[in-house]
Design brief:
Strand content: under 5%
Order of helices and strands: HHHEHEEEHHHHHHEHHHHHHHHHHHHHEH
Distance between the termini: 24 Å
Largest sheet: 4 strands, mixed
Oligomer: single chain
Structural class: mainly alpha
């Protein structure tokens, strides 16, 4: 499966989602009108068959549902943390010493590094004993991954990795964003049922002890309220049925794809299959008990046990396991509570011990990677993501670096350090600015991290940036504004175009803006590469120039010939930072398939000599992230 194609399909499915919602609204409007007609006939309050009655009914009902959907959608724009709180989850402290939580943090961080995504926030549903999990968020920059306590207690590391990989598939292929939109629309449908329940509750506050003269009138009002309440609840149930139908139509096939992707990510069928077998074999299954789980049932790893009107949002466990292991004997796996003080005797899950199928993780990553043509041609394929690579990179990061990524203050200084100039004199000036803007300690830490991280492989640098994202979300808004101001000043301080510095700052700001400013990706405006040929030429000319004058022309021509386009390399004056920024902004509004074409061209240019050097890999992956795509590290698991 190719994630660019999957994202494109997810966007098309959004149109179907809107159509389903409109049909559901029409069905509910007609049902509400029927209830009103019955009530009006019974009470003799007018002729229900006048056109005006239907129009008013349609406007009020549609308005209520639309308002409900708009309210919920605005609420969900805050990102996946909104859903996690609604599910009763709590955020995991990245410095946790709890064995199970430490294992979860390591697993999620490794998968994020392997897939080229910023690390999502990690949440735990402590009161949920079933084996389940979900990913939620409007964009990768505000995504969360949440698991139940049962998931932590009952699953092995490989099984937990399979579940986490399944959820990362939903983030990568666009399902997560689609599912969040579905939650917003479903809430509008449920509004009718909520109004019906409110009418019932209102009876408690009515004074039913009136005089005999008023008995007939008050009795009629009570009966009318009861009928209206029952009717709206029934209609609300019809709306819930429509909602379930939409959830099932959107979700079921995507679950099979996410299972298959998890196997490709982990190179292990037994992990995710084992988790599914344990769901079928334990008392609590995958049940979710929180009251708000129904509206989010399509987000979960497995069926949450909610009443589904015969329209389950997930395929049966047996079918999912059979798809993964055709030789399965049909037996589920019973599980017990873990031993007390498990892992406290020196066998805790550390970052290095998590590296699977290897005696030990390599201690050094090469400064450049030999790549095959297929590595570029297959950009976006699930086969390019390997959880073992994430383990390798995670294991090679110094514990002090990882600790800094998890600290609110040091993570900022670490980013500043990556942006400091190579020129000694300029670097001194930049450090003085950091000290003035953020404090003396920040300046000292920045230069410390600059010295330690300067020679790192590109994959490790980007991994550190990805690890910093959830920590930087914990800044206050004024702190965030100061952080952005400093990073922008560091990039502009030398008056020259340093493309990697710009891309790095752009990545961080992009993923944090979705949290602090609730800004998401814009609407699609460009559906063909021909609409962005000028912008593609700017980026291609800039990337080709990184190889030096001797290789610039050959790298450029290799990409142009491959693309079949008639273009001429641009002079440096046409490839300034402003031009690059405008080009990226336009490609950010292109379809996933157009973005794939751009990345393929850039990839051909940087690997024209058969080698992707560290800085070239940095640039290619950073460019992809800057336009909303994820490219895994160019590192092989050996």
């Amino acid at each position: 499966m190719n994630f660019f194609e999957a994202q494109d399909e997810a966007r098309r499915r959004t149109k179907w989602l809107v159509l389903y919602f409109i049909l559901a609204v029409l069905g509910v409007i007609i049902s509400v009108y029927g209830i009103i007609a019955i009530v009006m006939t019974y009470t003799g309050s007018g002729n229900p068959f006048m056109p005006g009655v239907f129009i008013v009914t349609a406007l009020i009902t549609g308005g209520v549902m639309g308002t409900g959907s708009l309210f919920k959608s605005m609420q969900l724009s805050g990102g996946g943390s909104v859903v996690a709180r609604d599910m009763g989850a709590r955020q995991v402290d990245p410095h946790t010493t709890d064995t199970d939580e430490r294992r979860l943090v390591n697993t999620v961080e490794e998968m994020a590094i392997a897939s080229g995504l910023p690390v999502p926030e990690i949440w735990i549903m402590d009161d949920e004993l079933g084996i389940n999990a979900f990913a939620a968020g409007t964009e990768p920059g505000n995504a969360v991954v949440a698991v139940t306590r049962g998931c932590l207690q009952r699953l092995t590391r490989d099984e937990l990795q399979g579940v986490v990989a399944h959820e990362f598939s939903h983030i990568l292929n666009g399902d997560m964003r689609l599912n969040m939109r579905l939650m917003g629309l479903l809430f509008g449908i449920l509004m009718i049922s909520l109004i019906g329940r409110t009418l019932f509750h209102s009876l408690r506050f009515m004074n039913l002890r009136s005089s005999s003269r008023d008995n007939k009138g008050s009795g009629g009002i009570v009966i009318a309220i009861v009928l209206a309440g029952v009717g709206l609840i029934i209609v609300g149930s019809i709306g819930v049925f429509f909602g379930r139908m939409i959830q099932a139509a959107i979700s079921r096939q995507r679950e099979y794809l996410a299972d298959a992707s998890a196997v490709q990510f982990t190179r292990d069928t037994d992990g995710i299959a084992g988790a599914l077998k344990k769901i079928g074999g334990q008392q609590y299954g995958s049940d979710i008990n929180t009251p708000k789980a129904s509206e989010a049932s399509h987000l979960f790893f497995a069926d949450g046990g909610m009443f589904s009107y015969g329209l389950a949002t997930h395929p049966p466990l047996e079918h999912r396991i059979k798809e993964l292991q055709q030789s399965w004997d049909g037996e589920f796996v019973a599980t017990n509570l873990p031993d007390v003080a498990r892992g406290r005797s020196g066998h805790q899950d550390t970052r290095v011990s998590g590296f699977a199928n290897s005696e030990s993780a390599p201690s050094v990553l090469p400064g450049q990677q030999r790549v095959q043509r297929g590595d570029i041609d297959n950009i976006g394929e699930t086969s390019q993501i390997n959880a073992h690579v994430g383990m390798l990179l995670h294991a090679n990061l110094n514990d002090e670096w990882v600790h800094a990524c998890h600290d609110r203050e040091e993570s900022q200084a670490l980013i500043f350090g990556l942006l400091l100039a190579e020129d000694n004199k300029l670097r001194e000036e930049e450090m003085l600015f950091v000290k003035k803007a953020a404090g003396i300690d920040a300046g000292e830490l920045s230069i410390k991290w600059n010295h330690e991280l300067r020679g790192l492989h590109s994959s490790e640098k980007i991994a550190l940036v990805d690890l910093c994202i959830p920590t930087l979300r914990r800044l206050s808004f004024p702190e965030y504004e100061r952080f952005v101001e400093i990073t922008q000043w560091l990039i502009a301080s030398d008056g020259e175009v340093n493309l990697f510095e710009y891309m790095l700052q752009h990545i961080v700001k992009r993923h944090l803006d979705t949290h602090f400013r609730r800004s998401g990706y814009g609407k699609i405006r460009y559906r063909k590469m021909e609409q962005l040929e000028k912008e593609a030429n700017i980026l291609l000319s800039t990337v080709a120039a990184l190889g030096g004058e001797e290789q610039m022309q050959s790298s450029y021509q290799a990409a142009v010939v491959e693309s079949g386009r008639q273009m001429q390399i641009l002079p440096p004056s046409d490839c300034g930072l402003m031009n690059v920024e405008q080009a990226l902004e336009k490609f950010d509004l292109a379809t996933p398939l157009v973005k794939k074409q751009l990345l393929h061209m850039l990839g051909i240019a940087v690997m024209a000599d058969g080698v992707i050097e560290s800085r070239e890999a940095e640039l290619l992956r950073a460019t992809a992230d800057a336009i909303g795509c994820s490219v895994p590290p160019f590192v092989k698991a050996t």
